[in-house]
Amino acid sequence: MNIMMVQNISFLSLHLLLILLLCLRPLTTVADGNSTNIDGWCDKTPYPYPCKRYFIKHSGFRLPTQISEFRVLLVEAAMDRAVSAWDKLTNSSKNCTDFKKQAVLADCINLYGDTVMQLNRTLQGVSSKTGRRCTDFDAQTWLSTALTNTETCRRGSSDLNVSDFTTPIVSNTKISHLISNCLAVNGALLTAGKNDSTTGDSKGFPTWVSRKERRLLQLQSVRANLVVAKDGSGHFKTVQAAIDVAGRRKVTSGRFVIYVKRGIYQENINVRLNNDNIMLVGDGMRYTIITGGRSVKGGYTTYSSATAGSTYGLDTLFYAEYKNIGPASSTRWRVRWKGFHVLSKASDASAFSVGKFIAGTAWLPGSGIPFTSEL
């Protein structure tokens, strides 16, 4: 059951983006605000200049009286700039014929489309007028994803040496700086607020596991909606074909299970934005294997070359290895990110065990899934 799954990000349609803007812009906007009075608020952010610059050009907002109101303004600003960047990238792709530039633009359009979605859900969650409240933890997660998307776009351009082409397209939006300001302000609220979270409820489940998901975990076996088999004994021969069909279903509230029989599947999986609530189940890490063959050398960005995932080297990540074995276990050629660690002590690695990291002993036994709680 060790299949890696990615939600490779898909862009929203331009019509949907425009609808979102029209619906969301009235949340904090009123008549005749004086943008220069917001300088004091902007000075508290990591990047005051793009903050001030944006509000000088976009007057007519309500001056915030508290930090939570300022956060809403910042998210709105980031949302506006993200849509602008997405629009510029989309227009640039229309007449682009260079393969490498096309590859980068395709990734960046997808990434910025997801950035708009992440900012939209954040705005819906932090604005008191929508009635949809989210925790500051949720907002921090969504904003972090939005920022990561912009960084992944930039790194993809660097991978294929076309930064001089894509950078001017999005640089004027200052989107990364604006999202960083959102993260800083939200982080202040996160620290100041109560935002307490518990590891589990009275029955031992993590609080973020929904009631439907709990029932799914309590089942001894899971019935598959679709079966993938290389020998033709299933519904499809490729994982991507099954995922594409799952994405076309009308009702997406329930979990959609795809069983992938043992075999080596040579494909790069793309799980689009509308393909939510999909669960891949295999015959084990040594029997069901998905492997791709794309690389930067072949003209693909790191983002699009992933078999079932994407990697990016933000300083904030924590990437650790402990007692790896096998042909590729040597860390000599590992990335040199600040967040990369080799754990040598069992006491350090145990913090990431099933028992401690996800409180697995409290809720996994009922699922029938075999596991080891400690190292």
From TrEMBL:
Pathway listed: Glycan metabolism; pectin degradation; 2-dehydro-3-deoxy-D-gluconate from pectin: step 1/5
Keywords from the named record: Aspartyl esterase, Cell wall, Cell wall biogenesis/degradation, Hydrolase, Secreted, Signal
Lineage top rank: taxon: Eukaryota
Molecular function via GO: enzyme inhibitor activity; pectinesterase activity
Annotated signal peptide: 1-31
Ranges of residues in domain Pectinesterase inhibitor: 33-185
Database matches in Gene3D superfamilies: Invertase/pectin methylesterase inhibitor family protein, Single-stranded right-handed beta-helix, Pectin lyase-like
Family annotation (PANTHER family): PECTINESTERASE
CDD domains: PMEI-like_3 (cd15798)
Chief place of localization: secreted
Organism: Arabidopsis thaliana (Mouse-ear cress)
A GO BP entry: cell wall modification
Compartment(s) where it occurs, according to its Swiss-Prot or TrEMBL record: Secreted, Cell wall
Pfam families: Pectinesterase, PMEI
EC number(s) given by UniProt: 3.1.1.11
Listed name of the protein: Pectinesterase
Family (UniProt): In the N-terminal section; belongs to the PMEI family.
Catalytic activity line of the entry: [(1->4)-alpha-D-galacturonosyl methyl ester](n) + n H2O = [(1->4)-alpha-D-galacturonosyl](n) + n methanol + n H(+)
Coiled coil: none
Main function: Acts in the modification of cell walls via demethylesterification of cell wall pectin.
